[in-house]
Design goal:
Chain lengths: ~220, ~220
């Protein structure tokens, strides 16, 4: 069941407000279909935007990285960050250049991240991250050891202040343009999986698991 | 021919420095294959990361949007921004959880954007943007009129301070993990085009143009 959510002045969608979605469950569906986010943080007044993967559990978004990375070192100090996830669904070819658009779904989360210190929660967050990207893989892999856990930082961002924006469906042209003689319509775009490529040093008898062969991001 | 490029301390890649690419032509190839960027800007100390499309000509990146948008209004004042383009090429399934990775190509550009004021340059930038996303579409569309041009802002970001990061190829596991009994390899990911969808109000005789039917982002 969807929980009500009221945007703040910072997350209220200003442009194309009819595309705004302030529904927590709708935002979760977008976050759960994607696994690549773009994280924004500020250093000496300069914003940086870095791509990274993420996982989600309830109202927590987890990201991870090397404990030595610029991004992680900056963010664990509780500075304001922004995490944006964008799913691109299609090109919208209108009759007028002006009404060309894209079909997409995006979520923008503002907040401060905190370092996940507790070893049990950290391991669980890494499992969530792994299972978010590729369900089934975690238990097929060699588990993290002490050294690896130490070299990895995990951050938790509460999904509290956020907005989602969605543009779906057909072309919308100005009424007078419908007589303009050109093709109009939507070119759908989708992320597709190719044939998995065996590693050159596979042990005998190891074949592609189902979760890799039939990988797709659910719609 | 590739131009030499020396990163600044802000764009020198710190983590996984072997993945860094400081080659202008390599960065251009990534920028030219993508068309969705994530723009970071700062308002009252809070970073925002917004997805938008872009075009490129030589060392200029163009973005556009409603003259009334929060993002465009902020950025045209010459504040520092960051534009990041990420192409996701695959999931890299190592034997250890720790060595799981992704194949990707990304470019990060730092700088200040300026408003494109000159009407001729503005129209040309809009054409570049359109042709960058969908070559051939511009001349098949109803051209922008005065009102539409007025409602649209175009910004130019010089591609001066930038870095690119590329991870390609197979799994790299720790030597002692090659005996761990699991499948390992790469699951390729690619953006694919679906069958174009005709608009419901097409004029008789309008069929899907080749640039929409055979759309793909060149590799």
């Amino acid at each position: 069941m969807s929980q009500p959510y009221t945007p703040t002045p910072r997350t209220r969608v200003v442009r194309e407000a009819e595309r705004a979605v302030y529904d927590r469950e709708a935002a979760y569906r977008i976050l759960d279909e994607g696994f690549l986010c773009h994280v924004g943080f500020v250093t000496d007044g300069q914003p940086f935007v870095i791509p990274t993967s993420y996982g989600r559990k309830d109202a927590s978004l987890y990201i991870h990285g090397s404990a030595a990375s610029r991004m992680l070192r900056q963010m664990k100090d509780g500075v304001p960050i922004c995490v944006t996830v964008t799913l691109l669904d299609g090109l919208v070819l209108a009759r007028s250049i002006f009404n060309h658009s894209m079909n997409y779904r995006s979520v923008v989360i503002l907040g401060k991240a905190t370092l996940v210190d507790d070893p049990k929660e950290k391991l669980e967050a890494l499992r969530l991250l792994s299972e978010h990207i590729l369900p089934g893989r975690w238990s097929d892999s060699r588990q993290p050891n002490e050294r690896e856990l130490k070299a990895t930082s995990v951050l938790r961002l509460p999904i509290e202040e956020f907005s989602a924006k969605v543009r779906q469906g057909p072309v919308v042209d100005d009424e007078e343009d419908y007589s303009f003689p050109t093709w109009a319509g939507v070119v759908p775009l989708e992320v597709k999986t190719g044939e998995p490529i065996d590693d050159a040093r596979l042990l005998p008898g190891q074949s592609v698991p189902a979760y890799a062969r039939h990988y797709s991001r659910g719609k």
